[in-house]
Specification:
The longest helix is centred in the last third of the chain and has 27 residues. The chain has 99 residues and is mainly α. Helix 2 runs antiparallel to helix 3 and helix 4 packs antiparallel against helix 5. It starts with 14 loop residues before the first helix and ends with a helix.
Length: 99
């Protein structure tokens, strides 16, 4: 039987971290998704703060692709900018302020 916790062995390694020793802006996304599937919602948020806005962005893009709505493009742009800000802030925090 396949368990959610078995997903960890199939995760892709971060090439940036392997080559340069620095985490990239996307480091933690796979582990965060794994934590969500396991029901650890706060741990997922701590692992990768942009996870919930990325999920919301994917939902909005998916809905807008198949059933375009009036403000769909605006929502996509706003969510993309918000995700970029969260990802860059998290990267700066992890890289320069924690170490």
């Amino acid at each position: 039987m396949f368990l959610i916790s078995d997903l960890d062995q199939y995760m892709l390694p971060c090439l940036n971290k392997k080559l340069f020793g620095l985490e990239c802006a996307g480091c933690g996304l796979q582990r965060s998704l794994s934590l969500i599937f396991q029901g650890e919602f706060m741990a997922a948020l701590k692992m990768y703060p942009a996870i919930y806005t990325l999920i919301l962005l994917a939902i909005v893009v998916g809905i807008n692709t198949f059933k375009p709505f009036k403000l769909g493009y605006t929502f996509v742009v706003v969510l993309a900018i918000l995700n970029g800000i969260i990802m860059i802030s998290n990267f700066i925090f992890k890289t320069f302020l924690i170490n």
